[in-house]
Every structure is written in C-alpha cells, then in structure tokens.
C-alpha cells in the first residue's frame, strides 16, 4: 500500500494527507494542494469499471487518491453522497445526441453538475474532521457565480460541526439560482448578496482566507475557515470519476473498444471540470483532446491558443452565467503539473495578481498536445439550442450548448472524428427563460414557474421536483453587503450562535 501526499503549487514546505488537504481547502502559502503523483489505472482496471455501478466506480478511483481514508469510509461517503439524492440510478448517464455523446451531470438535487462534487465533499470533510481530531467549528466560505452556492448549501446544510456562508453577485445569477439560494433551510447556513461581480466575490473570499488577523479573531470564536470552491481538492477528486465512468459506459455499450481514445468537450469557467479530465488522462484513461469551451469571457480560449493569460478585458454577463469568469483558479494546478516548478507557478500567480496577466507561452507545445479551445457568442449559443432541438429533439441548457457548438467546431476544423463526449453541466430547467427564447418562444412577463411548464410542454422532460417546489418555499436570506463588507459579515456569522 502506498500513501498519497499533497503539497502546494507555490512551493511551501508542508506535505499533508488528503484528509488535511480537504479540511484546509487552501495551502498556507495561498497555493492549491496537488497530489505528489498521478496514480495509474491500467487498461484492465478501466475495462472492469464497465460492469460496475457509478458508486463502485467512484470507490475504485477515489481510493487511489484518498489513501488515508479506509475503504469502508470511502464507500460510506460515496453511498451517502449519491444513493438517495440523484434522480437517475446511473447518476451520470451518457446519451447519444446527434453525432455526439452527451454526459449528463445534472441528475443531483440542484439540477447542475456541481452536485457531482458537492454531494461528496461534505461527506469527505466530516470524515476528515473526525480523523484529524478537529474540535473547532469549520466555517465553509463560498463565492459563487450561481450553481456552486446552492449545491454547497444543499450538501452542507445541517452537517455536523460545519457551518456554511455563501456570497453571490447581487443580480449576477439567474432568478432560479437566486431563489434556490435565498430559500435554503438549515441552522448552519447564511447567504449574502455582494454588490459586485463574481470575481469581486471570489477575490473577497480569497483575501479573507489569507488574512492572519481575521484568522485570530475567528480562532477566538472557535472557528476555522475552509473552502468548498473548486480550489478544494475534495471538489476536484470526485470529478475525475465521471470521465472514467463515461468511458466505461461507452465500453459497456460497445461503442468503443478498450484502448480507443475519446475526446471530451467541457464548458469551462474555473477550469475545475476540465482539469479533472486532464487528471483522468494522466492516470491512463485513453483521452485524445480535452476541448475547452468558453462563452464571450474567452480568457481561456486565448490562453490555450497563445499561452498568454490576460484578464484585462471587459467582463460580459452572458446567457451561460456559470462560465462568466475571468480568473480561472484551477488553471494554477495545470501550470504546476505541466512545469513541476513551484517557483515559476508562484511567479506567474504574482504577475496575475499585480498586472492582470502572465506569459506562459513556453508551454504552448504541451498545451496544444492536450487541449483545444474555442468560444461562442450568445447568438451562436441560442442558434445551437434551436438547431440541436430541431435535429434531435434534445433540449440543451445554455452552458451545454456552448460546449456542443465548440465540439462541432473542433471536429470541423481538425477533422478528428474520434468519439466525442460533451459534458452537460445543467438541466435546461435551470435556465428556462434563455432556453425558451432560443427556441423562439415568447417569454415576456412570464414567471419562472410558468416558464418551467412551457419548457416541459416543449421538451417533454420532467420538471425536477426540487425546482418546482421553489414556488412556495419561504425566503430566508435577505442580507446584502458591499465588496469591502464581506469580512465583517463573516465575523458576524462566526460570532452568532
Ligand atoms: C460551474 C459550472 C460550469 C463551469 O465549471 P468549472 O469547473 O468552473 O470550469 C459550467 N456549467 C455550469 C452549469 C456550471 O455550474
């Protein structure tokens, strides 16, 4: 038996277990925890996955990384995460849509892909808290562009020894996303709107994590901070599972032979989802290209094509709001894995913080070997939803439509016709108004629930029960704060009993 250690992308000396990395969230030097190596899944082990359930597949992958958890602990965490909360027994089914395969990651309680990770993370964290002998309350701070917040609230509500506080951009999330958050029940939760955009909220949270005076004040209230954002290792590791699971499903359906390479297209914001695909590839999954799909906030398209990251550009609010991001936190992990040079990563991150840009063009050959990137405008996204619906009767959500379009562009431009799996990150019901407008339906003056009914008539897909229930759910959270008021809001919550 081997042990997997974790250390910081920025070179701090600490080496920790996976339980410690998951409990802390961010390394002491502000870097992200990465595993010391990539455990290998030989082809024979991948073939075995074809005959297993999603939960069993998850255990096979997770145990390679969570070496300080017992197999029983991992099994318990996985069972509690997925067995009762998902509305499809396959958890993450693959469906053929036209020429492409669509991996549906939205059968969890909030109808978006964040559930895949955020149902499991609280389980891993509660177990870690006990394993590490932690007595203080863990306070989870989340900055969200919409989906993470609700998925985290849903996962952490009433978790033992843990409280959760969510900041979202005021007016920067969809009406349904907003409703999902402000109606959240649970003794241990607080939800606050920030006057600013997602990057403001994310920066505020990052600053609080790096603030020593704040840590001391929180310690006096017997509280330690942790993160459920996609920078937490416990968010990333569950996502590796569904890349293997999708491959196993194609094997089981005899759409591919063991060893055949497949491509994935991923609608990308913080780079967490697609990075999990890169991990899967490094572990031995036969992956050709990882195609990175963006909306008009196309900072990643430019980076993967030119090697220069430049966040100094206008910020657009698009119809795929969960990808409206200019600083993709998880890219830092990729930079580390490509260079294995923590000093270089720390220098790039310093340049990004100080100048808003850095030059990693030396990495272009290896970036191009693994990734391809493109973006769509809102107009192209709408057109894609309509065309795919006409051709296949399948209704894409706005984020998935970005990816579907970019996947087609990839095939067209490169001629690479290997099987393409498009990651579908949200149910169309989550962005009902945008989807209906794309389909040419009049939505003027209709409330969210009438929109759901219209969409049901049109798509034939059942309305997720938890979304329908929002109609009568009481609003529990009304707090709004300024960008520089987040610190005080956190202290207020920590000191309240
Ligand atoms: C979060 C999210 C994304 C982007 O995922 P990242 O891991 O941040 O790249 C895409 N689509 C939806 C619906 C999301 O909620």
Provide a concise account of the structure shown.
InterPro entries: Thr_synth_N, Thr_synth_N_sf, Thr_synthase-like, TrpB-like_PALP, TrpB-like_PALP_sf. This protein is α/β, with parallel strands linked by helices and 497 residues long.
List keywords for this structure.
Rossmann fold; 497 residues; single chain; 22 helices; 2 domains; binds pyridoxal-5'-phosphate; six-stranded mixed sheet; alpha/beta; globular
Distance between the termini: 44 Å
Strand content: 15-25%
What is the strand tally? Answer: 16
Strand order within the widest beta sheet: 4-5-15-10-11-14
> What class, by secondary structure content?
alpha/beta
GO molecular function: threonine synthase activity
Keywords: Lyase, Pyridoxal phosphate
Pfam family, one: PALP
Domain Tryptophan synthase beta chain-like PALP: 106-355
Describe this protein's structure.
The chain has 497 residues and is α/β, with parallel strands linked by helices. Helix content is 46%, strand content 16%. Helix 2 (43-49) crosses helix 11 (233-252), helix 17 crosses helix 18 and helix 17 (378-392) crosses helix 19 (432-438). The longest helix has 20 residues, at 233-252. The protein starts with 5 loop residues before the first strand and ends with a helix. Bound molecules: pyridoxal-5'-phosphate. Pyridoxal-5'-phosphate is lined by residues 112-114, 147, 230, 267-273, 322-323, 399, 425-426.
What does the secondary structure layout of this molecule look like, with pairings?
Blueprint: E1 6-8, E2 15-16, H1 18-24, E3 33-35, H2 43-49, H3 54-65, H4 71-82, E4 94-97, E5 100-104, H5 114-118, H6 121-131, E6 137-143, H7 147-156, E7 162-169, H8 175-182, E8 189-195, H9 198-209, H10 212-220, E9 223-227, H11 233-252, E10 262-267, H12 272-282, E11 287-294, H13 299-306, E12 308-310, H14 331-339, H15 342-355, E13 357-359, H16 364-370, E14 371-375, H17 378-392, H18 398-414, E15 420-424, H19 432-438, H20 448-459, H21 465-468, E16 479-482, H22 486-495
Parallel strand pairs: 5-15, 6-7, 6-9, 7-8, 8-16, 10-11, 10-15, 11-14
Antiparallel strand pairs: 1-2, 1-3, 4-5, 12-13
Helix pairs in contact: 1-6, 2-11, 3-4, 3-11, 4-6, 11-12, 14-15, 17-18, 17-19, 19-20
The structure holds pyridoxal-5'-phosphate.
């Amino acid at each position: 038996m081997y042990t997997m250690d974790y250390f910081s992308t920025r070179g701090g000396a600490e080496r920790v277990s996976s339980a410690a990395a998951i409990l802390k969230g961010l390394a002491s030097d502000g870097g992200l925890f990465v595993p010391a190596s990539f455990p290998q899944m030989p082809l024979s082990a991948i073939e075995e996955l074809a005959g297993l359930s999603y939960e069993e597949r998850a255990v096979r992958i997770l145990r390679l990384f969570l070496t300080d958890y017992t197999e029983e602990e991992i099994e318990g965490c996985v069972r509690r995460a997925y067995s009762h909360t998902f509305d499809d027994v396959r958890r993450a089914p693959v469906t053929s849509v036209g020429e492409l395969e669509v991996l549906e990651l939205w059968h969890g309680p909030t109808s978006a892909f964040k559930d895949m990770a955020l149902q499991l993370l609280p389980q891993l964290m509660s177990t870690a808290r006990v394993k590490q002998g932690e007595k203080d309350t863990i306070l989870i701070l989340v900055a969200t562009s919409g989906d993470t917040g609700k998925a985290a609230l849903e996962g952490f509500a009433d978790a033992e020894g843990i409280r959760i506080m969510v900041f979202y951009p005021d007016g920067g999330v969809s009406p349904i996303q907003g409703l999902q958050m402000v109606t959240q029940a649970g003794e241990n939760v607080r939800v606050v709107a920030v006057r600013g955009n997602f990057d403001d909220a994310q920066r505020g949270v990052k600053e609080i994590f790096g603030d020593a005076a704040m840590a001391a004040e929180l310690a006096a209230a017997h509280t330690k901070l942790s993160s459920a954002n996609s920078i937490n290792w416990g968010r990333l590791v569950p996502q590796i599972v569904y890349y293997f699971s999708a491959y196993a499903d194609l094997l089981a359906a005899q759409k591919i032979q063991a060893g055949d390479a497949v491509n994935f297209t991923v609608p990308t914001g913080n780079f967490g989802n697609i990075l999990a695909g890169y991990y899967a590839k490094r572990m031995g999954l036969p992956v050709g290209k990882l195609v990175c799909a963006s909306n008009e906030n196309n900072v990643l398209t430019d980076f993967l094509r030119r090697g220069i990251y430049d966040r100094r550009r206008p910020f657009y609010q698009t119809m795929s709001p969960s990808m409206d991001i200019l600083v993709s936190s998880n890219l830092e992990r990729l930079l580390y894995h490509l260079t294995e040079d923590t000093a270089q990563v720390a220098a790039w991150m310093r340049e990004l913080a100080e100048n808003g840009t850095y030059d990693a063009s030396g990495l272009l050959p290896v970036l191009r070997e693994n990734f391809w990137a493109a973006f769509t405008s809102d107009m192209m996204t709408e057109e894609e939803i309509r065309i795919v619906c006409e051709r296949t009767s399948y209704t894409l959500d706005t984020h998935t439509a970005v990816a579907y379009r970019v996947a087609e562009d990839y095939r067209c431009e490169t001629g690479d016709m290997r099987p393409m799996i498009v990651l579908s990150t949200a149910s169309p019901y989550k962005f009902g108004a945008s989807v209906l407008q794309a389909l040419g339906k009049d939505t003027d003056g209709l409330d969210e629930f009438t929109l759901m009914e219209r969409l049901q008539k049109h798509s034939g897909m059942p309305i997720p029960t938890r979304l329908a229930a929002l109609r009568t759910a009481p609003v529990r959270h009304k707090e709004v704060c300024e960008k520089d008021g987040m610190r005080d809001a956190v202290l207020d919550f920590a000191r309240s009993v």
